[in-house]
Amino acid sequence: xxxxxxxxxxxxxxxxxxxxxxxxxxxxxxxxxxxxxxxxxxxxxxxxxxxxxxxxxxxxxxxxxxxxxxxxxxxxxxxxxxxxxxxxxxxxxxxxxxxxxxxxxxxxxxxxxxxxxxxxxxxxxxxxxxxxxxxxxxxxxxxxxxxxxxxxxxxxxxxxxxxxxxxxxxxxxxxxxxxxxxxxxxxxxxxxxxxxxxxxxxxxxxxxxxxxxxxxxxxxxxxxxxxxxxxxxxxxxxxxxxxxxxxxxxxxxxxxxxxxxxxxxxxxxxxxxxxxxxxxxxxxxxxxxxxxxxxxxxxxxxxxxxxxxxxxxxxxxxxxxxxxxxxxxxxxxxxxxxxxxxxxxxxxxxxxxxxxxxxxxxxxxxxxxxxxxxxxxxxxxxxxxxxxxxxxxxxxxxxxxxxxxxxxxxxxxxx
Length: 415
Hints:
Helix content is 49%, strand content 1%. The chain is an all-alpha fold and 415 residues long.
């Protein structure tokens, strides 16, 4: 009798441990608890077998056993403790074990019919090709390359020609781009830039230089364009200014107004000349004012130009306001003190400040070597300053030096 009880318990344990199968059939139910009645042939030595019952919570899944007898289980979700109850015989048993019949309508499912898949099972090439396994996004990265394929915004920015390699080197720009949504943050601003006049093939270069315009409020951008229109800037002029100075529309209306007022008052320009100045060099509105103030002070105090001369030079060469102070003073010193060119001649051709110092020096020394270094308009063999610094070497040698290019190159080797 003890061996029979042991076999029944072992059978129930094996069913509980290894006999589980998930099924998608919602009709399969959980069997109610079945009472097993075991009774020996005689009344002496009564052995009772205790079966441990646990509650199984099933949500859209079912389980069953391949055995003909169904193990006991609990249907009630409120049962939280283990119930150990003795199994008693309710009618005479003359030689074996009697199992109580399960409820009708319960559909047993055979486990042997559906084999469990194995992780070591080989699959065909077709099945392998259907498997999509993408690597997870890295939590941190030093490059935007890891996110381009996963981000619609980055993908479309690359198609526009944005150089992400340059942007990721700038602080906080990479994180800003990853937080942008193309439809919410990017699309409307791209359409706005196109309406302003930025060419489609220049949008990539524009955003590479100024990605922060994607975070500007669209209404504020429109107000700044309207302000420029109110100051009599034409649509073509605004297009040129925005393309030449991508940060222009990041400035508030008050700041733009202050910049225009500064140049008008500092240089004594009219409204029209002020517009012409900033249209030719829109960086004057977006750059720092410190180099501008420093160059104006140098021209007035150190170089000795008068106000009208400064105004004339600036209108002719606006880059003079942003040029390097050391370059301007070095060129002026050589032109004025070494070559003897007066202020009024330099004022007529301020492009000389854009020339390279060695270019001016080599040509002057070559003309001096030939005896043709004459910069006074009232004297014969006059050499105009514009032709001295602007013409190519071969033209300079033929028209001004009256020599060959090889003679000039040979002379340069002696310097």
